[in-house]
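ok here's Si:dkey-83h2.3:
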Amino acid sequence: MCVSRCLRCVGISLVPMAMACMLSNLLLLFPGLSVHFLLEGHVTREATWATGLWGSGLLVSVGHTCVTCLCVTCVCMFYSVLCLLAAGFCCLVSATGLVQGPLCLYESGSGPTWGVPDAGYLYNSSLWSGVCVEPRGVVQWNLVLFSVQALVSGLQVVLCGSNLLNSVLGGRGSNPLCAGFCCRSVQVPFELIHGLEPDGTGSNWMEPDGSRSKGFYFDKF
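and the structure:
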C-alpha cells in the first residue's frame, strides 16, 4: 500500500518537471525565438540532441504514468531504471552545453565565423555580447535554459533513484522511505472490525504484554 502511495507521489512531482524540461529544450532550439537559426543549422549541438524532449521529458512522464497506473514491483523497477538513465543523460548533456557555451557567430582571425568560441569568456559577463554577435543574447539564453534543464533533470535523477530504492525495499517487505511522508497509519478500533460493542463481550485480541488491543493499524494511501 505504502509503496504504491510513494510511487504516486513521485509520479505526480515528476510530471511538471518533465514539462519544464520539454519547454526548456524547445526554447533552446529557437534562440531569440527565431526559427531560421535552426533551419540553417546554427543551434548549439547539445540543444539539437533534444534530451530534454525525449529524455527528461517524454520518457520520464510516460514512464511514471505507467508506474502509477500499473504499480507492479518489477514494472516499477524497470521504468524507474529507464527514467533514471534518461534523466541522468539529460543532466549530463545540459551540463556539457552549459560549460562549453553556445554556437554563435563570432569574430575570429579569419573573420566572422559560426562556431563555439573559447569558453573562457563565459566567466566574464561583460564579454558575452561582444563575443557572440548572432543570435543576439544567445549566451544568456543558453545559460538560463541549460541551467534550468540541468537542475530539473538532476532532481529527476534523485527522485527516480529514490523511487527505484523504494520499489526494491517495498518488494522485500521493508519500506522506510515512505514512513511518515507518503503513507499514514490509521487506527481501526478492534470492535468495528469484529462487530462488537465498545463494552461488548467475547474473545478479545490481547497484546503481548497482556493488555487488550485498542485496534489495528492500516496504511492509508
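+1. The first helix runs from residue 2 to 28.
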